[in-house]
Structure formats: structure tokens, C-alpha cells
Write a structure and sequence with these properties.
Rossmann fold; 432 residues; 23% helix; alpha/beta; six-stranded mixed β-sheet; single chain
Length: 432
Amino acid sequence: MPRTTPLASIAATLAVAGLLIGACSSSAPDVGRSGTGGSGESSARGGSGGTGGSAQGGTSGKGASGGTSNATGGSSNGTSTGGSATGGSANATSSGGSGAYPTNACEGLAMDNGGQGGDQACTGVASEAEPVAVDLFIMMDRSISMAQLVPGTDLTRWQALEQAVQDFATSTRGDDIRAGLGFFGLTGGSDDAIDCIQSRYSEPVVPIDTLDQSGPAIVSAMNDMAPGGLTPTGPALAGALDYAASWAKDHPGRATGVVLVSDGYPTQCAERSLSEIAAIAEQAHLNAPYVRTYVIGLDAEFNLDAIALSGGTHVAFKVDKGDISGSFSAALHNVANTKLACEYALPPPPAGNQKLDLTRVQVIYSTAGDASNEEIPALSGIDACANSPNGGWYYDNPSAPMSIMVCPCTCARFDAGRVDVRVGCRPAVGPR
């Protein structure tokens, strides 16, 4: 499968430029660090400008251990790679120099708040939003550490994963879920000439297809593979995103995501830092065709949240060491739940209209068990999420949209409740 040019060039660019983008719990220096208050921190990444810019530390942050702390010297400058950015609050990151993307759940605007241009008196046609179906490409770590025994059992990690993958591939068959599979590293040894070539990972072991078709092949591929070798995470993720981007371009109207599964730090291919790997995921998330990166970690001590956050999926799924099979299966099912994609199909035009008026679309959220409604403000694009405290939504393609996308903090809000799209009404407008 030919690689898509933007993603295919990312790894090479990072390797040459030595670009380091700050990420949570990375061994690399954080960018825009907000002082030293305890174990907490807040980070912000600079834009695309040259090195030597500045970043202001945020107010407070959340450490890997889950504790919070007040940042000392909140207004002090920190070193930033590329452009300037302002550090966000807890659990926030920034992208492209445009500020911080909040990822904690945020509330929309009250429906009686018409002060931002909302057409609250309008009686448009409302219908429950339909989450876009999700297509998944699983990039599975098969390094030698997968041969370790699960505590208290006679099963290896790999054998537990085999059971979980079989459960996923068989119990969800018949649903509108498509999945494919790849492995890293390739040789089961430490041959950089093969294991570190990004393009090799853009060729799937099992191509994406409906689970009715790909499920048996995924199970068979897992059974035929054995743990071995090191962990070339960087080129593996970049190649997987290349394949997923190519798939997404050929299948508009569906969400596409890469599921990165790993149990350890990158240990091959110049041991690329987590911040660099997070940058690869971020580029795929922010640029058409907008491929998200889901992360499932098999080691609680290995913090993969930075990659998931940059890849648009908020936080990594953590697998229970005592029940790898059960918790990994649950994580796959959760990822495959299309509501997690937070991408919704564009509604049809009202009856009698031949064309949908894109300037008259509202997104309404109703909290479960609560009669009150919130309006999610309309934004110009994902960059505006950084400056919108009430979250927001935007079109996947402003000129020819097929889907409604929502900001990370709005996505977190949608874990429960009902999402409606109302056409024929002018929306409340958020940051332009």
C-alpha cells in the first residue's frame, strides 16, 4: 500500500531536525514546564517556528502519579521548541502554537444563552446524532517482553492477548466494525535495516475489513506470531498511520483510528523519545484525513498518555496486570465503540431542501436524566478548540464536509447523554 506523503515524511523530518515536543511523563525535557511544585506539571508545545521561542508555565498540572500541585513561578518562561505557546491547565496540551487543548470534560452553553449569536427561538428539525462508524488498524507490540508470565498464571502476556483478540474478533462480528492488524518489530531480533523502516509497517499483515471477513485472519495471525525482538515504536506507529490515512482517504464518511498496543518504552531505532512519537500521532490527528491514535498499555509504569492525548483520544487505556485478557478485550471493545470517536454523520437537509445550509446547524447535548440542554458552539476548526472554554464542534472539511467533529473536552463530555443535531437554526458561534 503506497504511503501518504505528509505522514511518511514525519519520521524522517523528526530524525533529521531532532525535534522534541514536550509530552507527559517523557524522559525528554518538557516544554513550557510550570515550575517544580511536587510531582505535578503542565506542558505546552510550541508551534512550527524556529527553536528558542518561549512558553509560559501553566497554573497547575497533574503528574503521572495522579497527584496535583501548584506550579511555582507560573509566569516564568521556559524553553520552547518552535514558536511560542502558553501552558494550559491540568491535563492540557497545546498544538501548532495555538494554545492548549483542554481534555477534561467541559460544559457547553445553556440553551437560553443567546449572547453568542445563537438562534434560540428557531424551531429547526432535530434528530439524534449518529456516531460515525470506526475502522481500526491494530499495531501490536510483539517484543520479547510479551513472553513474560502474567502474575499468578501460567500464561504469557502474548497468550493472554491471543485470548482477548479472539474474543474481540468473534464477539463483535456482524457489527459495523472494521479492523486490520500489524506487528512490530518485524524480525523478532534487532535488525535496524528492517525493523526501523517506516514503509514496512504501512503494509498490513491483515488489511482492514469487516470483522466477518478479517476476524478469522486476525486470530490466525496472532496465533502464528511469537514474541521476540525489541520495540521500534516510532517507525511502527508512523507506518501504521500511513496505512490508516490511505484507507481513510478511500473511505470517507467513516472514522479511522490506529490502535497502538505496547508494554514498554521504545528500545530500537535510536530509541526515539515519547515526545517525538506523540508528535507523529498529533500530525495524523490534526491533518486531513484526521486519523486518531488510540493507545492500549500493558504496563502501568509506562506512561503512554502523551501519545493518546496528541493522537486525539484523551488518555491511554491501561490493562490490568492481573487480568490482561479480560481488561485488554474490554479496551478493544471500548475503542470499537463508535461513540468514542466523537465524530458524527452530517445530517440530511430538511425536507424539501436540496442542499443543507451549513451555516444553520446546531449541536445540542442533553445530560442523561436531565431535562436541560446545552448547545455546543460552532468553531472554525480544531485549532479554535484551544481558546473555547465551552468546547465546540467543527466540520471535518469546511468546503465539502461529511462529518461533524467535536473538541477533546466536548468529546469527554459525551460519555453519557444524548447528542442531537438541529438543522435550520443558526448556531452559537465560538472562537474564530
